Amino acid sequence: MAWLVTGGAGYIGSHIVRAFLKEGIEVVVIDDLSSGHAEFVPADVPFVRGTLLDRDLLMRTFAEHTVTGVVHVAGYKYAGVSVQRPLHTYEQNVTAMATLLSAMQESDVGRMVFSSSAAVYGTPHTDLVTEDTPKSPESPYGESKLIGEWLLRDQAVAAGLHYTALRYFNVVGSGALDLRDTSPHNLFPLVFDALMEGRTPSINGDDYATPDGTCVRDYIHVADLALSHVAAARRLDGGEPVLPVYNLGSGDGVSVGQIMSTVSTVTGIAFTPVIGPRRTGDPDRIVASGELAARDLDWAMRHSLEEMVASAWGSRQAASDAEK
Q: TM spans, by residue (predicted)?
């Protein structure tokens, strides 16, 4: 019996795969490698290359590997770009989810841990986001994640699906030197690429209503997030109760300015960020409470900001050394 990790060759998915293996839980990976990397999947883990839109492939995978649960991480994750590619976003995140759930139902696979997103909240009008904060997504990406949660809710009623959805903001760091964030849109890769190319990283605005004038956000370590996915799967396997959704939040957050300062200290590269204009729609502060996940899913901020930066920088350097 195994858990299927969709998107298991990606940055987050590959960390989840390793967390499952460390706990002695058998896993199978499916990924179309549109943004993932085959080398992120351990050699002894069955790897199926393909799309979740291929229902027949899903059915064969469930049967061949005796899959009993799914950790659904795969999806089109670029919120900003999703505004220009709404149809693609909905196909990858909504149609694929419906196809996956259909194949699960026919194969009697009745458990899912869904990698959702704090993008479902849009711009919340509160200093601390909870699971009950009103949902008002502001991009096709955020909308598609919320629809994914609705599909799970409705399938639970219709077919008895046991599930939970985990919402989180900014995932950073690395749990292994050979795993790293390669997104062209995320803050850490953008900053590291700039430094390695001799450019000065930039900040979008420094006149926000925060202690240092830069935006405050939740940044959580990818290895901490992976552990809570394992905990959620174990609860589902054990028939223990879970909530429909959990926030994996820090409770306090850090500012972009703090991140830049920490990057300079950790890398040993002195720089003063270039201050650019604000981005439209960026709120001063968005931070989520992780109390419910701490209670039920072993959620904890086990890594300091310095450790987040150092682990991410180490994996970026390792990749650069390997390319030489």
A: none
324/320 Cα distance (integer angstroms): 7
Q: Give 224's contacts (C-beta < 8 A, 6+ positions apart).
A: 248, 299, 300, 301, 302, 303
Topology (CATH) of 172-217+250-323: UDP-galactose 4-epimerase; domain 1 (3.90.25)
Selecting among 78, 90, 121, 141, the annotated active-site residue is 141
Is there a shared CATH topology between the 2-171+219-247 domain and the 172-217+250-323 domain?
no
Mean pLDDT of 245-253: 95
Q: Is residue 110 predicted with pLDDT exceeding 80?
A: yes
Residue 149: count other Cβ atoms within 10 Å of its Cβ: 20
What is the mean predicted confidence (pLDDT) over 105-122? Answer: 96
Domain ranges of the chain: 2-171+219-247, 172-217+250-323
For residues 1-29, average pLDDT: 97
Query: What's the average model confidence in pLDDT over 280-307?
Result: 92
Instruction: Name the 3-class secondary structure at 68.
Output: strand
| pLDDT the model gives residue 282 | 76
Q: Class assignment of domain 2-171+219-247? A: alpha beta
**Which 3 state secondary structure label does DSSP give 119?**
helix
Q: Which two tokens stand for residue 198?
A: 């001799």
User: Do the beta carbons of residue 62 and residue 104 sit within 8 Å?
Assistant: yes
What is the model's pLDDT at position 271? 94
pLDDT band, residue 53 (cuts 50/70/90): very high
Q: What is the DSSP string of 235-250?
A: HHHTT----SEEE---
Q: Is 141 labeled as catalytic in the residue annotation?
A: yes
